[in-house]
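Predict the 3D structure for this chain.
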Amino acid sequence: MDYHILDLRSVVNYVTSRPEAAARLDLTSSLEAQEVSDGNLNAVFRVREVGGARSVLIKQGLPYLRVAGEGWPLSRERADFEARSLARQHAAAPGLVPEPYWHDHDMAVNAMEDLHLHAVIRAPLIAGVRLETLGETIGAFLAATLYGSSDFALGGVARTRLAAQFQNVELCELTEALVLTEPFYPPPNRNTYLPALQGALDDLQADAPLLTRVAALKHRFMTCGQALLHGDLHTGSVMASPPDARGHSDIRVIDSEFAFFGPMGFDLGLFLANLLLCAHAQAGHAPDTAERAGRRAYLRRQMRACWETFEGQFRERSQGAISASWREPGFMDDFLVSVLRDAGGYAGCELIRRTAGFAHVLDFDSVEPETLRVQVGRRNLALGRALIHGASGLEHYDDFDALAWSDVLKEDA
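Done. Predicted structure below.
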């Protein structure tokens, strides 16, 4: 089938044309479609039986960046990378990602399990919903997927061959520009930010030692292929079912079209930074002091649970590493410290780019009034700088925790 952009009518015809769909839907019944696109890149549809219980999710890569429009062309090849990465994630961490159904290269479509009872977690976290297993789940996902695609599990030859399947040049270039370059330099760029942040941003962009550290993080992103990363792991890339009375829910990681081989700390840093963005934004979303402190304490717990689960499960897996070299306790201690340091640096970059770069987040942009948003923005920029400067000195998660939370704790005291 030649590529064409799907709409509510044509996506139903598309699904009925696919032989794989017969195992997922009653194709002799009436089907209906609903557009549920939520991210920046793709068109997403739910196709379901009218009056029935079954449905599938159809995700199509558009030939441009959806958030920017047709003036920003983008290759549809990203759908291939998502298909390959989702298949590996499902094998390594079953139950933590949607089940993949089929991939259609020509139409840039991935069909997968429809998580219709789930919601993207960014808005619920902003509103104070507490998913008590969030950090643990993301830590387990990262331990399974990162370890399973590393030299430790595969050996150098197999890892290199796998990495060759994930030369995600276009989306890596997008990350290099929008996350690791443009926020740190004056125009020309695609940055957008509140005018009142200009002074803080000028100061940041004049910080020569900071720019040196960011250059090193960018070079590491481009050259250090430790494992297959999700590549865009934030609270908009995670879905959860409504929590039960204990705060437990089914949590899944989605949207891995940015997948590539890079430094493990990148995924960790992005996720931790997005919890910090949510914590800072509570200044505008939880005016009651006690409620605000409670929400932040919850987010802090989830950050620690994420790292500690990742570290613990990664260490446990490394006991069966393919080479005796990787089973040396001292080596794994040093390696995980390097991952933590990378995570700290990339977390700092994410805080800065989500405040003054091209693509912001709801946490920050929804803070009102604007005078308060400016205060939150300055805090984001200051913490981003502190994390980038301080990352090289991290030895334990406690060091990261103290650096990330000291200023917030003063406000909540």
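The chain has a mean pLDDT of 96.
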